Amino acid sequence: MFQTIKRPQPGPSSATRTPAATRRWRRARPGLVALGIALPAILVYLYFSWGPILSSLVMSVQDITPGQTSTWVGMENFSYVLSDPNLPQATLNTLLYTGLAILFGFPVPLALAVFISELRGHRWYFSALAYLPVMVPPVVAILLWKFFYEPSEDGVFNAVLGVVGIGPVPWLTAPTLAMPSIVLETTWAGAGTAVIIYIAALSSIPAELYEAAELDGAGIWSRVWHVALPQMRGIIGTMLLLQVIGTMQIFTEPFLFTGGGPLGATRTLLMTIYDYAFVRVDYGAATALSVLLAAVLAVFALVYARLTRRWSAS
Amino acid sequence: MSAPARARSAKRADRPERDAVGRSNISDTDRRRPVVRVSLLLGQVVVLLGLVVAGLGPLVWLALAAVSPTQDLIREPFAFFSSGVVQWENIGIAWERGRIGHYLWNTAVLALGATVATLVVSTSAAFVITVLRPRWGRLFSAAILATLFVPGIVALVPLYLTVRELPVVGISLLNTPWAVWLPAAATAFNVLILARFLESIPADLYDAARIDGAGALRILWSIVLPLSRPILGVVGLLAVVASWKDYLWPLLVLPDPDLQPVSVALPRLAAQTELSVQMAALFLSLIIPVALFLVFQRQFLRGASMAGGVKG
Fold first, then answer.
1. Which of A220, A225, A245, A247 has the highest number of chain B CBs within 10 A, making it the mutation to test binding with B?
2. Most buried of A17, B8, B56, B277, CB within 10 angstroms?
3. In a domain, B208, yes or no
4. Which residue of A has its CA nearest to B122?
5. In this structure, is the dihedral angle defined by the CA atoms of residues B97, B98, B99 and B100, taken in order, positive or negative?
6. Best to test chain A binding among B52, B119, B153 (most A CBs inside 10 Å)
7. Residue ranges of domains in chain A
8. B253/A122 Cα distance (integer angstroms)
9. B205 to chain A nearest CA, in Å?
10. pLDDT digits 0-9 by tens, A18-69
11. Which of the listed residues B95, B120, B155 is the one where a domain comes to its end?
């Protein structure tokens, strides 16, 4: 829209006046107006972002009992959290969720986006349909799918599978199937966003690349493989990293689907943190585990930052 | 069917600039091959069917289930109204006794407040960073953008304690909508989107306004806000949806059931009410977001693809 705005007609002396005027304008109000305008943002970030981030580091080395002054305990919270017998399983469950989410949720949107981009008409319906589940509030989707996952023969999914002679599948009630079932739902709920992002990335690939590949005798599949996908490596890498960072913090779905069961098979790291903080009211342990998890994720975030810088530079 | 298609592709060949727009992996030459055309058409049908079943199927099922008796749903989930009864009263019971209307109102208030807070905070921050550029602007923008790389989880517990008792002022925000509104405003991603947009406005516009004697607030009000209306719409929609979907945070900071949004109330309701009313409640909670999507499809899809563009 901004391109259509007419630039103001430069007056004869505006070229020399503009920088001077800017300088004067800035000197006359030494950042005070700017400070006033930024104040709400500064306060909000101070209270609800910077402050909590810093205090989590402090809290992780403190013993905090509500109503009493906190005492310094050094690494005690960390060693307590790390020796918690539930930690290995929670870690494995979280990694399993992340791994499965990428296995299910990564190739499907990519393939869908490549296909939709080939369409010459009705593209809109495909995109809108793919995006529709994203609009379903997670809690609504979870409660609905929980009913779909009913393990008896008359469960919605089992009724469908029963037609082709499979089942009844125990879904959320079996320790080995509970996590894959959760991943299936989150993939359904989240794939739409990825599809839209990939379609946008595909539409920005220069046409000459395809033409050159075609002239060189590349078939359709090899064009997908050697032109489209390499051109999207930046966005694909980004999505992969964001997906890892996001899925490692999974909470709502296992919390509402299974509450961590059966037999702790869907208990994730975030549920462990929730448990420390809001069930046992051990804020020190909760922040210690948060800091540990965040440190791991920050490594991914830094890799992502470096990669995006390199990709946008090239 | 093939004659008009051929005519269309011939027309396209006349206008190369038009062709370049539609250019993708499968070229026009490929599209004339019967194998490609048939498999494309076949793929189109299969993918469309899959998308309809996956995207629309659960929602349609829910709409029918919302007016079905519990026994029908349990016995034969696909034979709708097998007992011949359409239970319209489910909807009324969910609305009245389940208080879905009340919770939806709470959700809307929380979402709108969070959106207003997000827009005010993010726009003013982006304006200061890109247009006013005070000496401390770089530090300010670095401090905001750095939070993008700190996973949200690290701040969950301290944030809760902050809201329970604000440091320095000592006020508790628990059980007030501010506990949802204000933290939602501290989303660095929105500052990033807005700052990128403001940077693309030609600086001459600001300079001209300054020469004409406009102050910072005047520039914000008369130039920046009108020009960035479309982007503000996208950021606002993203904020509404994020707030509408949130579960854990309102669960923590709004323990009073009277204040809770529908997402927090639904699991509790589900544990207490019979299945048919539960489905009606889910259906009622779904209508508004889906209607929002149908009205603002373009903005939503644009917002989603922009999220990728900025992140990439």
1. A220
2. B277
3. yes
4. A41
5. negative
6. B153
7. 19-59, 78-313
8. 44
9. 7
10. 555 555 555 455 578 889 999 999 999 999 999 999 999 899 888 887 667 7
11. B95
